[in-house]
Amino acid sequence: MDYLSILLFISVCIVLLSGYPVAIALAGTALSFAGLGYVFGVFDGAFMHALPSRIFGIMNNQTLLAVPLFVFMGVTLERSKIAESLLLAISQLFSKFRGGLAFAVIFVGALLAASTGIVGATVVTMGLLSLPAMLKQKYSPAIATGTICAVGTLGQIIPPSIALVLLGDVISNAFQQAQLDMGIFSPESVSVGDLFVGAIIPGIMLVMLYMLYILAIAFFKPELLPKIDLKQQDRPDIRTLVGAILPPLVLIFVVLGSILFGFATPTEAAAIGAFGALLLAAFKGGLNLENIKAINQATVRCTSMVFLILIGASLFSLVFRGLGGEELIHQLFNGLPGGLFTATLLVMLIIFLLGFILDFIEITFVVVPIVAPVLLAMGLDPVWLGIMIALNLQTSFLTPPFGFALFYLRGVAPKTVKTTQIYKGVMPFILIQLLVLIALAIWPELSTWLPKQVFEVEY
Asked: Do the beta carbons of residue 77 and residue 235 sit within 8 Å?
């Protein structure tokens, strides 16, 4: 019965592949195995006492309050046709090239990901903003959904990122603990700002490689990325382009800038974005009673989907922990020989696998404090380790069948888009992210050089 947690993992894979809703599959399978473990005496029923507090914690989380606000912002921009006009206008700037709309999605999605910092909110918002427009232009569903999921996960690495904020605090404490363990009683510190600056180059690399991939698809398989047929519509002049592009870009930069300059938290910035979207919709004349009703209904529906998935995932991780899943992983870790390279590789692999069943907050506060002091004491750079973990978690958000970004997009994608198409679409982007992860492992300076130049410190 020691391996009941592994059987739980396999069972959830099977249930998800059978087509059951994600939240119900996670929670239902977890409850079934909790009952099975309780009957065989390998699961302590006291673990379930933590479920109410976990659910209340999700409901009371001020950071998660940004989810409905950003969903409201996205739905408002989508219903008022502002987002579609923005995407089409930017794609018209690339109208001589195939894949112009995909380039627009990457550009706008990267800005939106930076302004939210929450993967679920970004994927849902971009799904509402861009997926209907891409399908309308006859884009391959796999490429369209894969691009949206990949761009949505940029919120994990592009600053200001909630994941980097949490990692920065944990890494800072682990770095000081590692130095104290080594007998250094005047320890140096590493801040969230260090991680923000260290993530800039890897974030830019990801965006550029995404664009290069779309460019390659447009060159080798042009039928998957059709050109926008400007002959069927009036070619917009400069004034029309500026009118379509400038207002939403100003809104995005206001949301992003309010966070970057410390004027607002992500939740407060989300409120600014929601209010700004309402103003833009009213200015465009799209804020009638019918649209307001549709916006509220869509926001409630999408928000309920996101939070139900979070509750199901929380229950699953609770049962997995109660069945000894984490202890089993730790035993495997302790039983393997090797030096710094083997230890780092194994930790990255464990974090990657745990990313299938745990959210980044749980991994950040449960796993990282255990392994980070040991790795830092062995000589790893704290900024490099933090960026590597962030990139690793970003990749796990995309990996089928448990990637949370896939779940979020599935919840808002049309029924005509198959789940297998979403899985197929994210595969090239997973390879791109792994390529950046490997490049960062080979050349740590990609994440450590810029912070040293900006802050003029040595770790």
From this structure: no
Question: Which residues, 6+ apart, have CB-to-CB distance to 210 below 8 Å?
Answer: 106, 147, 150, 151, 429, 432
Given phi > 0 = left and psi -120 to 50 = alpha, else beta, which region is 159? beta
> Mind listing the pLDDT tens digit for each residue in 378-419?
778 888 999 999 999 888 888 877 777 888 888 888 888 888
CB 395 within 8 A of CB 427: no
Q: Considering the entire predicted model, what is its pTM?
A: 0.69
Amino acid at 71: V
- d(Cα 225, Cα 323) in Å, to the nearest integer? 47
Q: Which candidate, 410, 169, 219, 222, places its Cα nearest to that of 306?
A: 410
Which of 59, 54, 68, 56 is CA-nearest to residue 267?
A: 68
Number of H helices, E strands in the chain: 22, 0
The 10s digit of each residue's pLDDT in 7-66 is 887 787 677 667 677 778 878 888 888 888 888 887 887 778 888 887 887 777 676 677
The string over 417-426, giving b where at least 16 C-beta atoms fall within 10 Å of a residue's C-beta and e elsewhere, is bebebbbbbb
Check if the beta carbon of residue 40 is closer than 8 Å to that of residue 428.
no
Residue 154 per-residue DSSP state: G
DSSP per residue over 29-73, as a string? Answer: HHHHHHHHHHHTT-S-GGGGGHHHHHHHHHHT-TTTTHHHHHHHH
Between residues 67 and 427, which one has the greater pLDDT?
427
| Residue reference for tokens 């704290």 | 382
Owner of token pair 């300076």 = 445
Burial 119-133 (b: 16+ CB within 10 A, else e): bbbbbbbbbbbbbbb
How confident is the model over 151-160, as a mean pLDDT? 81
Cβ atoms of 154 and 199 within 8 Å: the answer is no
